[in-house]
Amino acid sequence: MEFKQGDRVRIEKNGTVYEGKVMPSMEGHITIKMNSGYNAGFFTDNVKITLLESNGENTNGGLNGGKESKMVEENIPKPGKKLPKVAILSTGGTIASKIDYRTGAVTSQFTADDILAAIPELREIADFKGRVISSILSENMDSESWQNLARAVVEEIEAGADGVIVTHGTDTMMYTAAALSFMIETPVPIVLVGSQRSADRPSSDNAMNAICAALVAVSDIAEVSVVMHGTTSDNFCEIHRGTKVRKMHTSRRDAFKSINSLPIGIVDYDTREITTFIDYIKPGERPLKFKPGMEPKCALIKFTPGSGPEILDHYIDRGYRGLVLEGTGLGHVSTKWIPKIRKATDAKMPVIITSQCLNGRICDRVYDTGRDMLKAGAIEGEDTLPETALVKLMWVLGQTDEFDEAIEMLSEDLSGEITKCCFK
Fold first, then answer.
1. Domain final residue, candidates 74, 107, 124
2. What's the pTM?
3. Do 236 and 283 share a structural domain?
4. How far lies 240's CA from each of 169, 190, 237, 363, in Å?
5. Are residue 151 and residue 96 in the same domain, yes or no?
6. Worst-scoring range by mean pLDDT, 75-89, 220-234, 290-304, 324-338?
7. Which residues are in the Asparaginase/glutaminase C-terminal domain (predicted)?
8. Which of 281, 260, 271 lies closest to 357 in space, CA to CA?
Protein backbone atom coordinates (compact mmCIF):
# COMPACT_ATOMS: atom_id res chain seq x y z
CA MET A 1 0.00 0.00 0.00
CA GLU A 2 0.99 3.65 -0.32
CA PHE A 3 0.88 6.26 2.42
CA LYS A 4 1.93 9.82 3.01
CA GLN A 5 2.03 12.42 5.74
CA GLY A 6 -1.44 13.19 7.09
CA ASP A 7 -2.99 9.85 6.12
CA ARG A 8 -4.84 7.96 8.84
CA VAL A 9 -3.60 4.38 9.09
CA ARG A 10 -3.93 1.20 11.15
CA ILE A 11 -0.71 -0.60 12.07
CA GLU A 12 -0.70 -4.20 13.29
CA LYS A 13 2.34 -5.65 15.03
CA ASN A 14 2.56 -8.82 17.12
CA GLY A 15 -1.22 -8.88 17.60
CA THR A 16 -1.45 -5.26 18.77
CA VAL A 17 -3.28 -2.62 16.73
CA TYR A 18 -2.29 1.05 16.60
CA GLU A 19 -4.20 3.81 14.79
CA GLY A 20 -3.22 7.36 14.03
CA LYS A 21 -2.08 9.98 11.52
CA VAL A 22 1.18 9.58 9.64
CA MET A 23 3.85 12.08 10.72
CA PRO A 24 7.20 13.01 9.16
CA SER A 25 9.34 9.86 9.28
CA MET A 26 12.83 8.76 8.36
CA GLU A 27 13.32 6.27 5.54
CA GLY A 28 12.32 2.72 6.38
CA HIS A 29 10.14 3.88 9.29
CA ILE A 30 6.64 5.13 9.85
CA THR A 31 5.67 7.40 12.76
CA ILE A 32 2.04 8.02 13.71
CA LYS A 33 0.30 10.38 16.10
CA MET A 34 -2.23 8.30 18.07
CA ASN A 35 -5.49 9.56 19.58
CA SER A 36 -3.87 9.52 23.01
CA GLY A 37 -1.50 12.23 21.86
CA TYR A 38 1.50 9.89 21.97
CA ASN A 39 3.66 9.12 18.95
CA ALA A 40 4.56 5.59 17.92
CA GLY A 41 7.30 4.61 15.46
CA PHE A 42 7.78 1.34 13.57
CA PHE A 43 10.10 -0.25 11.04
CA THR A 44 8.05 -0.56 7.86
CA ASP A 45 9.31 -4.04 6.93
CA ASN A 46 7.81 -5.92 9.90
CA VAL A 47 4.33 -4.43 10.34
CA LYS A 48 1.03 -4.57 8.48
CA ILE A 49 -0.26 -1.12 7.49
CA THR A 50 -3.85 -0.44 6.41
CA LEU A 51 -4.90 2.92 5.01
CA LEU A 52 -8.03 4.15 6.83
CA GLU A 53 -8.33 7.66 5.44
CA SER A 54 -6.32 9.37 2.74
CA ASN A 55 -5.18 12.95 3.06
CA GLY A 56 -5.14 13.66 -0.68
CA GLU A 57 -3.32 12.16 -3.66
CA ASN A 58 -0.18 10.18 -2.95
CA THR A 59 2.43 11.18 -5.49
CA ASN A 60 5.55 9.56 -4.14
CA GLY A 61 6.69 6.52 -2.21
CA GLY A 62 5.15 3.21 -1.32
CA LEU A 63 5.28 0.47 1.27
CA ASN A 64 6.25 -2.92 -0.07
CA GLY A 65 8.02 -5.17 2.37
CA GLY A 66 11.44 -3.71 3.05
CA LYS A 67 11.51 -1.32 0.10
CA GLU A 68 12.43 2.31 0.60
CA SER A 69 9.58 4.66 1.35
CA LYS A 70 9.61 8.44 1.14
CA MET A 71 7.35 10.94 2.81
CA VAL A 72 5.86 13.78 0.80
CA GLU A 73 5.47 17.34 2.05
CA GLU A 74 2.01 18.64 1.23
CA ASN A 75 0.96 21.91 -0.26
CA ILE A 76 -1.83 22.77 2.14
CA PRO A 77 -4.35 25.06 0.43
CA LYS A 78 -5.41 28.17 2.26
CA PRO A 79 -8.98 28.10 3.55
CA GLY A 80 -11.67 29.63 1.38
CA LYS A 81 -13.35 31.63 4.14
CA LYS A 82 -11.87 34.83 5.50
CA LEU A 83 -9.88 34.12 8.63
CA PRO A 84 -7.81 36.29 10.97
CA LYS A 85 -4.24 37.00 9.86
CA VAL A 86 -1.61 35.55 12.17
CA ALA A 87 2.16 35.76 11.79
CA ILE A 88 4.30 32.86 13.01
CA LEU A 89 7.80 34.01 13.91
CA SER A 90 10.16 31.09 14.36
CA THR A 91 13.19 31.38 16.63
CA GLY A 92 13.99 27.67 16.95
CA GLY A 93 13.60 25.43 19.96
CA THR A 94 12.06 21.99 20.33
CA ILE A 95 8.74 22.90 18.73
CA ALA A 96 10.71 23.63 15.55
CA SER A 97 13.11 20.70 15.93
CA LYS A 98 13.55 17.13 14.91
CA ILE A 99 15.94 14.31 15.63
CA ASP A 100 19.29 14.48 13.90
CA TYR A 101 19.62 10.78 13.21
CA ARG A 102 23.34 11.18 12.64
CA THR A 103 23.95 12.21 16.26
CA GLY A 104 20.72 11.20 17.98
CA ALA A 105 20.31 14.72 19.33
CA VAL A 106 17.50 17.23 18.89
CA THR A 107 18.41 19.99 16.44
CA SER A 108 16.58 23.14 15.39
CA GLN A 109 15.91 22.74 11.67
CA PHE A 110 12.24 23.41 10.99
CA THR A 111 10.90 26.70 9.66
CA ALA A 112 7.53 28.26 10.37
CA ASP A 113 6.24 26.78 7.10
CA ASP A 114 7.40 23.33 8.22
CA ILE A 115 5.30 23.73 11.36
CA LEU A 116 2.23 24.57 9.27
CA ALA A 117 2.83 21.58 7.02
CA ALA A 118 3.25 19.25 10.02
CA ILE A 119 0.12 20.57 11.79
CA PRO A 120 -2.51 21.11 9.05
CA GLU A 121 -5.26 21.84 11.62
CA LEU A 122 -3.71 25.26 12.07
CA ARG A 123 -5.03 26.27 8.66
CA GLU A 124 -8.58 26.00 10.02
CA ILE A 125 -7.90 28.69 12.63
CA ALA A 126 -6.18 31.52 10.77
CA ASP A 127 -4.47 32.67 7.60
CA PHE A 128 -0.83 32.26 8.55
CA LYS A 129 2.33 33.96 7.41
CA GLY A 130 5.60 32.31 8.36
CA ARG A 131 8.87 34.11 9.03
CA VAL A 132 12.15 32.77 10.42
CA ILE A 133 13.84 35.18 12.83
CA SER A 134 16.49 32.74 14.05
CA SER A 135 17.11 29.01 14.33
CA ILE A 136 18.77 28.62 17.69
CA LEU A 137 18.25 26.80 20.93
CA SER A 138 16.92 29.16 23.56
CA GLU A 139 20.03 29.16 25.74
CA ASN A 140 21.65 31.19 22.96
CA MET A 141 19.10 34.03 23.20
CA ASP A 142 20.35 37.36 24.52
CA SER A 143 19.24 40.97 24.80
CA GLU A 144 20.08 41.65 21.15
CA SER A 145 18.00 38.64 20.11
CA TRP A 146 15.06 39.93 22.16
CA GLN A 147 15.22 43.31 20.48
CA ASN A 148 15.46 41.82 16.97
CA LEU A 149 12.48 39.62 17.74
CA ALA A 150 10.50 42.54 19.19
CA ARG A 151 11.13 44.59 16.03
CA ALA A 152 9.86 41.72 13.90
CA VAL A 153 6.73 41.38 16.06
CA VAL A 154 6.01 45.10 15.72
CA GLU A 155 6.55 44.95 11.96
CA GLU A 156 3.96 42.19 11.64
CA ILE A 157 1.44 44.11 13.76
CA GLU A 158 2.00 47.24 11.69
CA ALA A 159 1.50 45.15 8.54
CA GLY A 160 -1.97 44.16 9.74
CA ALA A 161 -1.50 40.94 11.70
CA ASP A 162 -4.42 40.18 14.02
CA GLY A 163 -2.11 38.15 16.21
CA VAL A 164 1.50 36.98 16.43
CA ILE A 165 2.85 33.57 17.46
CA VAL A 166 6.49 33.20 18.47
CA THR A 167 7.86 29.66 18.50
CA HIS A 168 10.61 29.45 21.09
CA GLY A 169 12.71 27.03 23.09
CA THR A 170 11.25 26.41 26.52
CA ASP A 171 14.36 26.83 28.67
CA THR A 172 14.50 30.63 28.40
CA MET A 173 11.03 31.36 27.06
CA MET A 174 10.05 33.17 30.27
CA TYR A 175 12.88 35.68 29.78
CA THR A 176 11.81 36.42 26.20
CA ALA A 177 8.16 36.70 27.24
CA ALA A 178 9.11 39.27 29.86
CA ALA A 179 11.30 41.18 27.40
CA LEU A 180 8.48 41.43 24.84
CA SER A 181 6.07 42.44 27.62
CA PHE A 182 8.21 45.43 28.58
CA MET A 183 9.20 46.49 25.07
CA ILE A 184 5.79 46.25 23.38
CA GLU A 185 2.42 47.63 24.37
CA THR A 186 0.36 45.53 22.00
CA PRO A 187 -3.17 45.95 20.62
CA VAL A 188 -3.25 42.28 19.51
CA PRO A 189 -2.32 38.92 21.06
CA ILE A 190 1.38 38.03 21.12
CA VAL A 191 1.73 34.35 22.03
CA LEU A 192 4.92 32.45 22.81
CA VAL A 193 4.74 28.69 22.42
CA GLY A 194 7.16 25.80 22.57
CA SER A 195 7.24 22.11 23.24
CA GLN A 196 9.00 19.90 25.71
CA ARG A 197 9.36 17.04 23.24
CA SER A 198 10.15 17.21 19.53
CA ALA A 199 7.66 16.12 16.89
CA ASP A 200 9.28 12.75 16.25
CA ARG A 201 9.59 11.75 19.91
CA PRO A 202 6.95 9.82 21.85
CA SER A 203 4.30 11.99 23.50
CA SER A 204 5.24 15.15 21.62
CA ASP A 205 3.29 18.15 22.81
CA ASN A 206 4.07 20.35 19.82
CA ALA A 207 0.79 19.97 17.88
CA MET A 208 -1.54 20.63 20.81
CA ASN A 209 0.51 23.54 22.06
CA ALA A 210 0.63 25.10 18.58
CA ILE A 211 -3.11 24.73 18.03
CA CYS A 212 -3.92 26.22 21.44
CA ALA A 213 -1.48 29.07 20.79
CA ALA A 214 -3.20 29.78 17.48
CA LEU A 215 -6.58 29.95 19.22
CA VAL A 216 -5.18 32.48 21.70
CA ALA A 217 -3.60 34.44 18.84
CA VAL A 218 -7.07 35.03 17.34
CA SER A 219 -8.70 35.71 20.72
CA ASP A 220 -9.33 39.01 22.54
CA ILE A 221 -6.33 38.58 24.88
CA ALA A 222 -4.21 41.51 23.70
CA GLU A 223 -1.20 40.77 25.86
CA VAL A 224 2.07 38.89 25.68
CA SER A 225 1.36 35.38 26.90
CA VAL A 226 2.89 31.91 27.03
CA VAL A 227 0.66 28.98 26.01
CA MET A 228 1.72 25.47 27.05
CA HIS A 229 0.22 22.20 28.33
CA GLY A 230 -1.77 22.62 31.54
CA THR A 231 -1.49 18.96 32.57
CA THR A 232 0.48 15.92 31.46
CA SER A 233 -2.58 14.83 29.45
CA ASP A 234 -3.84 16.29 26.18
CA ASN A 235 -6.89 18.05 27.66
CA PHE A 236 -6.07 21.75 27.95
CA CYS A 237 -3.37 24.38 27.70
CA GLU A 238 -2.84 27.23 30.13
CA ILE A 239 -2.46 30.87 29.09
CA HIS A 240 0.20 32.53 31.24
CA ARG A 241 0.91 36.25 31.46
CA GLY A 242 4.36 36.96 30.02
CA THR A 243 5.72 38.50 33.24
CA LYS A 244 4.23 35.91 35.62
CA VAL A 245 5.30 32.62 34.08
CA ARG A 246 8.12 30.24 34.97
CA LYS A 247 9.34 26.87 33.76
CA MET A 248 9.04 24.66 36.84
CA HIS A 249 10.11 21.23 35.56
CA THR A 250 12.87 20.03 33.30
CA SER A 251 10.83 17.70 31.12
CA ARG A 252 7.13 17.42 32.04
CA ARG A 253 4.68 18.64 29.42
CA ASP A 254 3.00 20.86 32.04
CA ALA A 255 6.29 22.46 33.08
CA PHE A 256 5.07 26.07 32.82
CA LYS A 257 3.13 27.62 35.68
CA SER A 258 1.88 31.07 36.60
CA ILE A 259 3.54 32.24 39.82
CA ASN A 260 1.79 34.58 42.29
CA SER A 261 -1.13 34.75 39.89
CA LEU A 262 -3.76 32.59 38.27
CA PRO A 263 -3.23 31.94 34.57
CA ILE A 264 -5.07 34.34 32.29
CA GLY A 265 -7.10 31.31 31.29
CA ILE A 266 -7.14 27.90 29.64
CA VAL A 267 -7.79 26.54 26.15
CA ASP A 268 -9.86 23.34 26.03
CA TYR A 269 -8.22 21.18 23.36
CA ASP A 270 -11.36 19.22 22.52
CA THR A 271 -13.87 22.06 22.31
CA ARG A 272 -11.34 24.75 21.25
CA GLU A 273 -12.97 27.10 23.79
CA ILE A 274 -11.09 29.63 25.92
CA THR A 275 -12.04 30.20 29.57
CA THR A 276 -10.47 33.17 31.35
CA PHE A 277 -9.81 33.59 35.08
CA ILE A 278 -8.39 37.09 35.55
CA ASP A 279 -8.70 40.51 33.93
CA TYR A 280 -6.64 41.12 30.82
CA ILE A 281 -6.14 43.81 28.18
CA LYS A 282 -8.42 43.56 25.15
CA PRO A 283 -7.88 44.70 21.56
CA GLY A 284 -8.41 48.41 21.09
CA GLU A 285 -7.75 49.32 24.74
CA ARG A 286 -4.31 50.69 23.91
CA PRO A 287 -2.42 51.67 20.73
CA LEU A 288 0.75 49.94 19.60
CA LYS A 289 3.86 51.29 21.33
CA PHE A 290 7.36 49.99 20.84
CA LYS A 291 10.10 50.92 23.28
CA PRO A 292 13.27 48.97 22.44
CA GLY A 293 16.49 49.29 24.34
CA MET A 294 18.12 46.78 26.66
CA GLU A 295 21.13 47.22 28.92
CA PRO A 296 22.97 43.86 28.83
CA LYS A 297 25.34 44.62 31.73
CA CYS A 298 22.97 43.55 34.48
CA ALA A 299 23.24 40.46 36.65
CA LEU A 300 21.08 38.15 38.75
CA ILE A 301 22.93 36.95 41.86
CA LYS A 302 21.67 34.14 44.07
CA PHE A 303 22.55 34.51 47.74
CA THR A 304 23.58 31.33 49.54
CA PRO A 305 24.60 30.88 53.20
CA GLY A 306 28.26 31.69 53.69
CA SER A 307 28.74 33.30 50.28
CA GLY A 308 31.10 36.25 50.49
CA PRO A 309 30.08 39.79 49.59
CA GLU A 310 33.07 40.19 47.28
CA ILE A 311 30.95 38.74 44.48
CA LEU A 312 29.22 42.14 44.37
CA ASP A 313 32.64 43.79 43.92
CA HIS A 314 33.10 41.69 40.78
CA TYR A 315 30.12 43.33 39.10
CA ILE A 316 30.57 46.81 40.57
CA ASP A 317 34.23 47.03 39.54
CA ARG A 318 33.48 45.81 36.01
CA GLY A 319 31.01 48.54 35.29
CA TYR A 320 27.74 46.64 35.51
CA ARG A 321 24.71 48.93 35.48
CA GLY A 322 22.36 47.07 37.83
CA LEU A 323 21.91 43.99 40.02
CA VAL A 324 19.08 41.70 41.08
CA LEU A 325 19.65 39.82 44.32
CA GLU A 326 17.75 36.58 44.85
CA GLY A 327 17.55 36.58 48.63
CA THR A 328 16.14 34.16 51.15
CA GLY A 329 12.58 34.16 52.49
CA LEU A 330 11.20 37.68 52.69
CA GLY A 331 14.20 38.94 50.73
CA HIS A 332 17.31 38.76 52.87
CA VAL A 333 21.06 38.45 52.39
CA SER A 334 23.87 38.25 54.96
CA THR A 335 24.55 41.42 56.92
CA LYS A 336 28.07 41.25 55.42
CA TRP A 337 26.53 42.05 52.02
CA ILE A 338 24.89 45.31 53.14
CA PRO A 339 27.98 47.56 52.80
CA LYS A 340 28.41 46.24 49.24
CA ILE A 341 24.78 47.05 48.46
CA ARG A 342 25.51 50.59 49.62
CA LYS A 343 28.65 50.65 47.45
CA ALA A 344 26.55 49.66 44.42
CA THR A 345 23.79 52.19 44.98
CA ASP A 346 26.34 54.94 45.71
CA ALA A 347 27.76 54.09 42.28
CA LYS A 348 24.26 54.67 40.82
CA MET A 349 23.61 50.95 40.32
CA PRO A 350 20.02 49.94 41.11
CA VAL A 351 19.81 46.83 43.32
CA ILE A 352 16.50 44.93 43.30
CA ILE A 353 15.70 42.36 45.99
CA THR A 354 13.66 39.26 45.08
CA SER A 355 13.08 35.93 46.81
CA GLN A 356 14.24 32.40 46.15
CA CYS A 357 10.87 31.23 47.47
CA LEU A 358 9.20 32.41 44.22
CA ASN A 359 5.71 32.23 45.70
CA GLY A 360 4.81 35.15 47.93
CA ARG A 361 5.90 38.75 48.32
CA ILE A 362 9.11 40.01 49.85
CA CYS A 363 9.05 42.44 52.75
CA ASP A 364 12.29 43.92 54.03
CA ARG A 365 10.60 45.81 56.85
CA VAL A 366 10.07 42.86 59.20
CA TYR A 367 13.64 42.12 60.34
CA ASP A 368 16.64 44.37 61.02
CA THR A 369 18.58 42.92 58.09
CA GLY A 370 15.85 43.89 55.65
CA ARG A 371 15.53 47.38 57.07
CA ASP A 372 19.29 47.85 56.78
CA MET A 373 19.16 46.67 53.14
CA LEU A 374 16.53 49.30 52.39
CA LYS A 375 18.63 51.99 54.12
CA ALA A 376 21.49 50.91 51.84
CA GLY A 377 19.31 51.77 48.86
CA ALA A 378 17.92 48.37 47.84
CA ILE A 379 14.55 48.24 46.02
CA GLU A 380 11.90 45.72 47.05
CA GLY A 381 10.87 43.61 44.07
CA GLU A 382 7.50 42.82 45.69
CA ASP A 383 6.30 39.50 44.16
CA THR A 384 8.21 39.88 40.90
CA LEU A 385 9.96 36.71 39.77
CA PRO A 386 13.78 36.99 39.85
CA GLU A 387 14.08 36.36 36.11
CA THR A 388 11.41 38.94 35.32
CA ALA A 389 13.10 41.43 37.64
CA LEU A 390 16.36 40.98 35.72
CA VAL A 391 14.68 41.61 32.35
CA LYS A 392 12.79 44.59 33.79
CA LEU A 393 16.06 46.04 35.10
CA MET A 394 17.72 45.57 31.70
CA TRP A 395 14.81 47.26 29.95
CA VAL A 396 14.50 50.18 32.38
CA LEU A 397 18.23 50.92 32.13
CA GLY A 398 17.83 50.79 28.35
CA GLN A 399 15.25 53.59 28.63
CA THR A 400 16.97 56.03 30.96
CA ASP A 401 20.40 56.99 32.25
CA GLU A 402 18.91 58.88 35.17
CA PHE A 403 19.33 56.92 38.40
CA ASP A 404 16.36 58.45 40.23
CA GLU A 405 14.06 57.91 37.25
CA ALA A 406 15.22 54.30 36.98
CA ILE A 407 14.51 53.72 40.67
CA GLU A 408 11.01 55.14 40.25
CA MET A 409 10.28 52.93 37.21
CA LEU A 410 11.66 49.81 38.90
CA SER A 411 9.35 50.38 41.87
CA GLU A 412 6.25 50.51 39.64
CA ASP A 413 4.16 47.75 38.09
CA LEU A 414 4.96 48.28 34.41
CA SER A 415 3.55 45.16 32.74
CA GLY A 416 1.72 43.03 35.29
CA GLU A 417 4.92 41.84 36.96
CA ILE A 418 3.81 43.09 40.41
CA THR A 419 0.56 41.68 41.74
CA LYS A 420 -1.63 44.28 43.42
CA CYS A 421 -2.65 41.92 46.23
CA CYS A 422 -0.57 39.72 48.48
CA PHE A 423 -0.25 35.96 48.17
CA LYS A 424 0.65 33.99 51.27
1. 74
2. 0.79
3. yes
4. 16, 12, 10, 25
5. yes
6. 75-89
7. 299-407
8. 260
